[in-house]
TrEMBL record, chain A:
Source organism (scientific name): Jannaschia seosinensis
A biological-process GO annotation: proteolysis
InterPro entries linked: Metalloenz_LuxS/M16, MPP/UQCRC_Complex, Pept_M16_N, Pept_M16_Zn_BS, Peptidase_M16_C
Record protein name field: Protease3
Every Peptidase M16 C-terminal domain range: 192-375
Gene3D superfamilies assigned to the protein according to its UniProt record, in alphabetical order: Metalloenzyme, LuxS/M16 peptidase-like
Automatic annotation (TrEMBL), chain B:
Domain of life: Bacteria
Key word Transport present: no
Organism this protein belongs to: Jannaschia seosinensis
Coiled-coil portions: none
Keyword Lipid biosynthesis: no
Alphabetical list of PANTHER family matching this protein: METALLOPROTEASE (PTHR11851), PROCESSING PROTEASE (PTHR11851:SF224)
Protein name: Peptidase M16 inactive domain protein
Organism ancestry: Bacteria, Pseudomonadati, Pseudomonadota, Alphaproteobacteria, Rhodobacterales
Molecular function GO labels: metal ion binding
Pfam families in UniProt: Peptidase_M16, Peptidase_M16_C
Keywords of the record: Signal
Signal peptide: 1-19
Amino acid sequence: MRQTFLAAALACVPVMATAAEEQTGAVTTFTLDNGLDAIVIEDHRAPVAVHMMWYDVGAADEPPGKSGIAHFLEHLMFKATDDMEAGEFSRVVEAQGGSDNAFTSQDYTGYFQRVAADRLGLMMEMEADRMRDLQFDDADMLTELDVVLEERAQRTDSDPGALFSEMRNASQYLNHPYRIPIIGWQHELEALTLQDALDFYRTYYAPNNATLIVAGDVDPQEVRALAETHYGPLDPTPGLEPRTRPAEPPQRAPRRLTFTDERVSNPYVMRTYLAPERDAGAQQEAAALTVLAQILGGSSATSLMGRTLEQDEGTALYTTAFYDGTSYDDTTFGLVVMPVPGRTLEEAEADMDRMIETLLTEGLDPAQLERIKTQVRASEIYARDSLQGLARRYGVAVTSGLNVADVDEWPDLLDNVTEADVREAARAVFDPNRSVTGYLTRPEPAAVAEAAPESEIEATE
Amino acid sequence: MTRLILTLVACLLPLKALAIEIQEVTSPGGITAWLVEEESIPFVSMDILFEGGANEDAPARRGATNMMMGLLEEGAGERDNREFAEAVEAAAARLSFETNNDTVGVGFTFLTENREESVALLRDALVSPRFDAPAVERVRDQVLAGLASDARDPREIASRTLAALSFPGHPYGTPLEGTPETVAALSIEDLRHAHQRALTRDRAVIGVTGDITPEELGPLLDRLLGDLPTFDGEPVSDIDPATEGGVTVVDFPSPQSVVLFGHEGIDFDDPDYFAAYILNHILGGGGFGSRLTEELRVDRGLTYGIGTSLVPRDHAAQILGQFASSNDKTAEAVELVREEWTRMAEEGATEAEIDAAKTYITGAYPLRFDGNSRIAAILAGMQSNDLPIDYIDTRNDKVMAVTPEDIARVAETLLDPEALHFVVVGKPEDLETKAF
């Protein structure tokens, strides 16, 4: 690898776009011989580039009993390679005035740097180095496991809402690994070894399992040439098949749970339903569900739940509906009702059911549908303001089994959703047998102590 | 750290010049804004800051400014709250309202094609909010629920505890959301009064970026803000942070302790501010390279993250830091922070550390300007800090002009381990409330 670092010095010669100044917004794709896919998004407003590497592997691809390994490996990627010492990657990025970070989901692991556009070659050189040459012989790497345990303690164990989500999610999926938290179960996390991380790394960190995304003030031809130089020599992992995870069996019974924690201040009910995700070339139902979430719980002033429960009836402090269709396997459609003090979670759940029933029987307000579409069209314009947001949109999609054409088609699909589509999608998704209803609440005595005076009597029921 | 960095420093190249051209636009009615034209995407971002903010709440009316700001889009002009929300949706405009102690802020993004109706809607929200009783009660309940939530959130508890210790008798010492008692007591008249005081056209600074010309912007500013009153109240006084060195433990049921620490800082207009900025970057700012991150996270795995920052507010300045650590590791982590604080105060930073920090701070600056909404916010922030319109061109020179002697002097005067106060919220082992 040493000679490629000499090449880095040469790569310091600026590779600014020259002829392509009019191409802001243009998207170009190519694939290297070793299987590395690449997407280039041009934006010439500022001399900045975002460089991202997205691996088609996430927490849902972990071996049984090794939960947390995908995310632990993400932390280890900032340690030593054969050519860089631990922490050097981030130090070099910082020495260029750039910033870098990484993220792990159920379906992908991504690494990104935001730098001056003329530093792109250097970023590629370092990212290529750690794709294949991470060193696992450093005893200090296990210290990073303590950091991950502290991360779990901070993000999950210190947050009753996060613990509640962990329990609810484990009930939603009977067989699919989405039931396991991304950060890992504590007892499995504590037992992870560097060998576990190495095995995972050797298999999945390879050019034929990754997508390069570059967005910013760059010329696609230059990006391709740099990618050939830095990523081209990397060996693919032979025999890597498309991901197949254990699938869900038919779900035949509603599930319910109550999570009680003294740190909870405002109890709420959350229900999720198993829901289809966006599939390549078949995104219509996901588009209808995306609009349905807006109709039911998008705005507290104008959505069905918001205007009825928060405004007209004054029975809820907060309501929302959520659905993210960008997922490799089945996702969820969710609803939340946080009742006003003095109102029980049973009553809040009845309110939620009543809103679903209203939508199914009475349909929706065409004017509301039209406003939602107006906002969808506008958000396409606003989205062009954020380089990182655009790059991320493509990254999430391609690691969820979609392609660039699916991403580009998506706004039109949303725009073409009809009232009938929304009602049909709602009828299909609101199947009680595929649902989990969760109460997040607190022990009764605390409820008395903390409730507003006028609600004390009802809160103790 | 190593050949790779050394090679690269040698070939650092100047960044492509930032094409940020700021124009000062003054409306026919005398309202001034800073504008960066950017016509490649058909929308405009506008950021408005009104000086004054929640600091000007009377103590018994604490929370009035915050609740008032929460009601601006809950009914305005001829429209009740739902009609207003529907009109905003139909125009696909984006409005946001924010309350701080020193300022209240308005974020506004609109499509070129819907400019007139979008401006008319924000104008109504700013100039003629209705404060309809049902909306007031609904928002009051939301604020009270937020306060109940904050009372069980270890980060909020830590922040409120340190603020109360640092600023007794000053608005900075109490939450800008108010208390359950003050919020419950706020009348519609109080909210109207807060509106008249906080949103005044002579205390507005405005940043605009996007698809609009100076000729179009001038009259728009008058339509938007021309009917607001001017300020005739009393400004808030300055205060020196009152904390003494020590530890305050607040018992809270959690596997981790949340730790917030700090002492008096340095004003933004102090000649040594950039030296302090570099110093903070080396100590606990920025990304992975800081001394505190190396000591606590990388070498010992005591925390997921630790950071420090300079917090120069209008009436007081602090340097603050925070981390969370398992209860059995918290005492060790607190001791390490004190040791690093002492080491930096006594020895300052190395020349290599200073050079690396300067490279990062100057290199990162141009990267902030990537997007209309980011630029609009920067333009408003510059004016709020009384910076000159050519500040962007000179800022990096000021960073580079800082010498190792400056750093050593500022390290000695700014950092005082004996004055450092730690608020610890959790169940830390072997750590009790005490003075140093």
